[in-house]
Structures are given as structure tokens and as C-alpha cells.
Fold Catalase.
Amino acid sequence: MIYKLTKDASISELEAAGLGPNYAQRDHALFYQNSAGVPWTAAYIQAKGDPLADLYEDIAAEEKARATYQWLIDMTDDVELQDSLKFLREREIVHALRFKESVQIIIDDKNQKKIF
């Protein structure tokens, strides 16, 4: 999406948008960072080793991503970009629903009497 939005931008347009340093190092390639410019790191991935705790962490991550996509949709009037963002937003919703179903399966299994 970033490439699509910047592929026809001139160097002066990229500089005016504050993307000059990124262009100088990476052309139009992506560099994964948050909105404050902090680079992505694997430290963002949370895992406890407990299936329920990990699934709840996954659900929270999907909901945060869904909210971010919605904010981005609200920030643009480009219909094609909105369509792409809506697809990504809906994917996050489906992921969260599947994780919630997995939580229920684990809870049901824990509550089931085991006879060996």
C-alpha cells in the first residue's frame, strides 16, 4: 500500500512529506516502524506459554489492528485505498473471531471431566 501511494511521487514530494531520509536509504521500500518512527522488533510479540493467555494476547492484537485500519480508513478519501484497508480490517475481525472460538474450545475442554 505504501509503495502504491508513493510510487509516482517525485523526490521533492517525498522530501516535503518527510520521507526524504527513507527514500535516501530504501527508495520506495518499506521499513517497518510505528507511527513515532520506532523500528519493529520481535520484542513486540508476546508469548506466555499458556494457551489461554496467548490467545487473549492474540485477540487484543487483532482488535488493535482493526482499530488502526478503521482510523486509516477515516483519514483518507481515496476509495481504492479504503477498499484495501477495509479488506485488511475485515481480516482482523475474522482472526479475532477464530481466536475467540479457540478460547471457548480450550475452556470447554478444561471443564470436561476426564476419565482414563
Notes: The chain has a mean pLDDT of 88.
